[in-house]
Amino acid sequence: MLAKIEELLQEVGAMTAANAEELEALRIKYLSKKGAINALMADFRNVPAEQKKEVGMKLNELKNLAQERINALKETFENQDNGAAELDLTRTAYPIELGTRHPLSIVRNEIIDIFSRLGFTIAEGPEVEDDWHVFSSMNFPEDHPARDMQDTFFIESHPDILLRTHTSSVQSRVMEVSQPPIRVICPGRVYRNEAISYRAHCFFHQVEGLYVDKNVSFTDLKQVLLQFAQEMFGPETKIRLRPSYFPFTEPSAEMDISCDICGGEGCPFCKYTGWVEILGCGMVDPAVLEANGIDSKIYTGYAFGMGVERITNLKYKVKDLRMFSENDTRFLEEFEAAN
Ligand code: PHE
Q: Staple partner for 133: which of 108, 169, 221, 319, CB 3.0–4.6 Å?
């Protein structure tokens, strides 16, 4: 038996394999259940008691050596494989691809930062909403066109359930559970039944603002929006408010900023007006305060809502809105430095 073990020790010590198959054959020959070493193990009980210690130690030595040799040979094959892959000279020198923040997230975070510094906290609400929070509580008349199938995605089996068309629904969600002072911004995704083109999509993003307290005036609204515009687009930025209409604000206005491409001179981007529109706003209609459980004789408020895509277009001059949702990494990588 000892002689047989010695013989195998020599064999195993000298074994080589040219490829993985040969190596596997060696493993089967020596280390598998039916291999040579296991056969010796089975014979071990026939070894006379006085030789058991010496034979046992040799047998273990053999088993360990076989395992070591096979592992060592296996490693050389694995390294060879990697070696081949490393020779691909067309591969980038950068070892890992770093992800970038989405441009809409960058701009949304910037908007949130600016309003946080002005004392606003963040509120969120569901994207699948009911008619009350999106329309009725926001003072939309029964026959208002915004409720029309052409604008709103309804859930077929439940005409009362819909995809919110604006983040104004979150105003209602906040007011129904809290009393003034209320000062929130509500970022979120909204949906409208529009044909998709370079300038319209069936979903986009808004940031809504709401401030309700005693003695809130239109001047407060104008001041906070001026502050926002100058932090977002630069200290030279001018704003102007044009009268407008929303069911939930009275008076209502749309805000333009001075065109930062031509500096107000007039160019194709601002259609030679020197101004570009960025948001809707106004004083919260007393009927909205009342519908949401707030006493309109004590409190007044202002609200505003802006499109994140619109602001991003102005900041980064993205011509085609569809780029934002196509996930083309060549487009997204351009925003690496803005992260
Ligand atoms: N909800 C309006 C829209 O989607 C924007 C808005 C919000 C206007 C708040 C006034 C006040 O167009």
A: 169
| Contact (Cβ atoms closer than 8 angstroms) between residue 301 and residue 283 | yes
State how far the Cα of 178 lies from the Cα of 173, in Å rounded to an integer. 9
182 pLDDT higher than 90? yes
**How many CA atoms lie less than 13 Å away from 113 in the CB half-sphere?**
9
Interval 272-310: pLDDT, tens: 999 999 999 999 999 999 999 999 999 999 999 999 999
> Model pTM?
0.72
Half-sphere exposure of 257 (CA within 13 A, CB side): 23
Alpha helices in the chain (DSSP H): 2-14, 20-31, 36-43, 52-86, 103-117, 131-134, 168-175, 218-233, 286-291, 308-316, 323-326, 329-332
Q: 103-338: which CATH number, 3.60.15.10, 1.10.287.80, 3.30.930.10, 3.40.50.920?
A: 3.30.930.10
Segment 33-61 shows an average pLDDT of: 86
Residue 135, Cβ neighbours under 10 Å: how many? 26
Q: Is 97 annotated as a binding residue?
A: no
DSSP state, residue 241? E
Indicate if ligand 1 lies below 6 Å from the C-beta of 246: yes
Q: Rounded distance, CA 261 to CA 326, Å?
A: 27
Q: Which residues contact 12 (CB under 8 A, 6 or more apart)?
A: 30, 62, 65, 66, 69
Distance 280 CA to ligand 1 centre (A): 5
d(CA 59, CA 30): 12
Distance 198 CA to ligand 1 centre (A): 22
**Ligand 1: centre distance to CA 281 (Å):** 6
**Dihedrals phi, psi of 164, to nearest 5 degrees:** -60, 140
pLDDT tens digits, one per residue of 221-247: 999 999 999 999 999 999 999 999 999
Query: Which is it for strands 249-258 and 158-163: parallel, antiparallel or unpaired?
Result: unpaired
Kind of pairing, strands 275-284 and 239-246?
A: unpaired
Residues found in the chain? 339
